[in-house]
Design a protein that fits this description.
42% of the residues lie in helices and 17% in strands. It has helices spanning 25-31, 82-85, 90-102, 107-122, 138-149, 176-193, 221-224, 234-248, 250-255, 274-285, 304-317, 330-333, 343-365, 402-420, 434-438, 446-467, 476-488; strands spanning 10-15, 18-23, 37-41, 49-59, 66-75, 154-159, 162-170, 207-210, 263-267, 288-292, 323-327, 369-375, 393-396. It has a five-stranded antiparallel beta sheet with strand order 3-4-5-7-6. The chain has a five-stranded parallel beta sheet with strand order 10-11-12-9-13, with helices on both faces. A hairpin with a 2-residue loop joins β1 (10-15) and β2 (18-23). The longest helix has 23 residues, at 343-365. It is globular and about 80 Å long.
Length: 489
């Protein structure tokens, strides 16, 4: 998928009568280098399978980096009864061998020995071959042959009613073929558990999605935003990812006596995504997000504002989880008062002085709190208040250039496609070109571009509501007209 494509690559993998739709397989594998990626969650599986999950992540702990695929199948059975359920095909044999290797005289080990002996009599495997389908199962042979050709070797185990399948592939070699092969082994295991070891019937007509987010995304968009969704600010995103890494590796930080930033100041024109970036940073860290608004600090009574600042930082010292505290529109809370001797200037200086004192001691009291401040007018903020040691990172968030606007548009449209397009409904036409549209949007911010899309979505929805049928998908001309309308006001 290129940078400005609005639809990720999609492919349909037929497996034992089921359709498995894979969205952006190369992108999924690339994303695994940043953390675990859910490949398959949910879906309707035949009994006794109750739930199936499949993830992939990059692992460097035991030597050269590998992409580790892990699948978990929860079944309605006691731990010793999994083989009796029908998991006695090639995947079941791997489980049986695992149980035998553990040793012991329990029912699970005994069932494993019986399964291994039976399989050797009925369908012996050639030396060095990991998975071979039994005779009379052409569908299984096709899928498992592909797994063998891809070099996929599965490790199967079970505990407490859950079958676990693990496959490691060197990261330097991993590709979509490995993903398809792992899915083949996973669905073969589902077949075996459902007693479907010869003719594939139990999965016929079912559909599964791999790599697509659920239809219902919890929470407003601003609360669920991630750094991956931020467009046009690659340098800023890279710096925020470094902050997130510092939270994920506390031992390395402690070994070197390193201190993560205590404060981050973002400044730039309105609508450039400063607040969104703060939320995305919190989500990247896995931190709570606390937004401090102007009315929570400013008080018309003498000394009230200073007490509010002290209370906010007192609470921050008690947080037990990583937390991003956002002071949005920071200049409206603490403005530069200069040397004025009037009562208003003295009051502002008093609030700023308390803020400085609290920032000076916050990190020692609770290093898992990061203070983020945003402002459209950095010249209004006292320089001593935002010096290094208080605000270590001071980052300009400019209005996006043409390339930035193209990236922002592509990510916004891609997000809408992912959330709303379904079989039989296309939200955007094939002629949509974010790069060409970016040339017509000079001077617009990310907030402006989102507003243009909002207006188009509303217009299309109202037209469907009045006409009774969905109108044509949003086209490039529709987008140009929406931008023109936004400029007109």
């Amino acid at each position: 998928m290129t940078a400005y494509e609005v639809r990720p690559d999609e492919e349909t993998l037929p497996l034992f009568g089921a359709e498995v739709h894979i969205t952006d397989p190369a992108g999924l594998l690339a994303a695994a280098t940043d953390g675990p990626v859910d490949l398959l969650t949910g879906g309707d599986f035949p009994a006794p399978v109750r739930e199936v999950r499949c993830t992939v992540r990059a692992d460097t702990a035991d030597g050269p980096p590998v992409h580790r695929f892990e699948a978990y199948l929860r079944v309605e059975a006691a731990p010793a009864g999994l083989l009796a359920l029908g998991l006695a095909g090639p995947v079941g044999l791997l489980l049986a061998e695992r149980l035998v290797a553990r040793g012991g005289d329990g029912p699970a080990a005994a069932a494993g020995r019986v399964a291994v002996q039976a399989s050797r009599r009925l369908w012996p495997r050639p030396a060095g071959v990991a998975l071979v389908a039994p005779p009379g199962d052409p569908a299984g042979r096709t899928v498992l042959r592909a797994a063998g050709e891809a070099g996929v070797r599965a490790h199967v185990d079970q505990r407490d009613g859950t079958v676990r399948i693990r496959v490691d592939v060197p990261s330097a070699e991993v590709g979509p073929a490995h993903l398809r092969a792992v899915l083949g082994v996973l669905f073969q295991a589902v077949r075996e558990l459902a007693g479907d070891s010869v003719e594939p019937t139990v999965l016929r007509g079912r559909t599964y999605l791999v790599g697509r987010r659920p239809v219902a995304v919890p929470g407003p968009r601003s609360e669920t935003v991630t750094l991956d969704q931020v467009g046009g600010l690659s340098d800023v995103v890279a710096r925020f990812r470094e902050v997130a890494v510092s939270f994920r590796h506390p031992q390395a930080m402690a070994r070197w006596g390193a201190r993560r930033p205590q404060g981050i100041l973002m400044y730039g024109p309105p609508g450039t995504g400063k607040t969104m970036l703060a939320r995305a940073l919190a989500n990247e860290i896995g931190a709570d997000f606390v937004e401090i608004r102007t009315p929570e600090i400013l008080d018309k009574f003498l000394g009230g504002s200073e007490r509010n600042v002290k209370r906010i930082f007192r609470d921050a010292r008690r947080y037990r989880r990583p937390t991003v505290m956002l002071f949005d529109e920071f200049d409206s809370i603490i403005s530069y008062a200069g040397a004025g001797g009037d009562a208003a200037s003295q009051a502002v200086n008093a609030v700023a002085g308390i803020f400085k004192q609290e920032m000076n001691t916050l990190f020692e009291a609770n290093p898992d709190v990061i203070v983020v401040a945003t402002t459209n007018f950095p010249q209004r903020v006292d320089a001593s208040l935002i010096r290094s040691g208080r605000f270590d990172l001071k980052i300009a968030i400019p209005a996006p250039d043409e390339a930035g606007r193209a990236e922002i548009l592509a990510k916004m449209i891609r997000e809408l496609v992912d959330r709303h397009e379904r079989p039989g409904f296309r939200m955007f036409a094939d002629d949509v070109d974010p790069a060409a549209l970016a040339a017509d949007t000079a001077g617009l911010t990310g907030a402006d571009l989102r507003e243009a899309l909002r207006r188009l979505q509303l217009a299309k929805a109202l037209r469907e509501a009045t006409e009774g049928a969905p109108p044509a998908p949003i086209s490039q001309d529709d987008l140009r007209e929406a931008v023109a309308g936004l400029r007109r006001g």
